[in-house]
Amino acid sequence: MTSAPTPTPLTSDDDWWRSAVVYQVYVRSFADANGDGVGDLQGIRERLPYLRDLGVDALWLTPFYTSPQIDAGYDVADYRDVDPLFGTLTDFDAMITDAHALDLRIIVDLVPNHTSSAHPWFTAALAAAPGSPERARYLFADGKGEQGELPPNDWESIFGGPAWTRVPDGQWYLHLFDPAQPDLNWRHPEVRAEFEDVLRFWLDRGVDGFRIDVAHGMIKAEGLPDVGFNSMTTGRRQSELLGKGRLPYFDQDEVHDIYRAWRPILDSYPGGRMAVAEAWAETPQRLARYIGPDELHQAFSFDFLDATWSADSFRKVVDTALAESTIVGAPTTWVLSNHDRQRHVTRYGDGEVGLRRARAAALLMLSLPGCAYVYQGEELGLPEVLDIPDELRQDPAFLRTGESRDGCRVPIPWSGELAPYGFGPASSELSWLPAPATWRALSVAAQTGVPGSTLELYRAALRIRHAHPALAGTTGGITWLETEPGVLAFRRAAGDTELTCVVNLSGAEVTVAGYGRPLVASADLTERGDGHVLPVDAAAWFERR
Description:
This protein is an alpha/beta fold.
């Protein structure tokens, strides 16, 4: 481990996060500098000019900390160091220095709900006796049954199966995810002090923000009460309640005390340091509680990601999110894909239909007020890879549930005719997951400078978003406009300048008139009378001054 260098935070705008476009980098799948088949920090550093030219404001990096990599780094053994798979702390410092020089901010993933089973705290807990101070940092409990042979309660792992594993002395420990990810006891003061120090460690290195993994999960209900059902008793998984109902191990009121302690730490650093919650709650009102001047800056809105391809669904989600944003005084976060969910090209129908809709959805998202998160490769129109051989899958959930997130984590294509399409140096053909042959036409090189390509669509939209007075640097509201059924249209304005976004979800082409000149469109527009024909599953921005 090396000491922190003098940080170089970007200090020009403390509110940068209110309207930023954040690019999620899945580190192991972005760019491989050393040719071992796994992405790394030096690979990110070498590709920073691409991200600057794309037009994003910040990067969110998935975990790169020391880890056995059971769950792709979300099982952390050392929160203050870089796993050799990804580089060194020196590599991180060089990367963030270069990013700041390019006006790119860096958000890192923080995993506070659980550690790795290889973390020194947990190895000490296993070596200690029941009731020891070492075990108090985690959630150990005696089992039920005559000999304690049954788990302490009926809780299920998100990855499937029981959320408890028994150790040789008879006690059980809680893991809401994989057995290699034991849950911490966040009622223990040592745990809270440790993570406050971890925050400062990375803030001192110049980090601009944190994405809080499982932000709703750190506090469990007192007494560890049963849920009352699980997949073994009813065939229904408890995880089906995520975002729909209350679970005794998620979204407990006491979790907000943690974030009230974190906010003054973030505020004590210059440059608008921020935190965004990955949180699930049963209502938008409960989700909004994570946000505010004394807690976190943002919380992901997964309702937008889950919206169906219909005007009614998108409008309901947008209206609800903007209303909640007004109440809490914080921006909405919009997201279409991430490393845990199927890519939206495939969700929207796959193939030509899915890509057409994904391009339109991008213009919808990027024209809304608030902060947008772009998952790596969506600017290339990448679909989910559905045919990865089972023996190559690495998601720990696959063995427990048969479900896998590997299809959205395949390394992105940069150039070339053969896989892995420039993911690593020219001398390397290694890639930790295989890319399909169809991705040759979707690479960065294949799309750069090509009119109408998805990459150039994103670049154009992001240029306009940053420069247009109706979109740039504002979290103002929108005005819905009257349209024919199945079409969404709303206006954003700054002074006498108006920008109108129109999205055609009607199933038939429509004529759009009266909104001014077109600035960008997800499909070719043709003139008709004094308007333009907007094709099926297409979106366009129009300007009137």
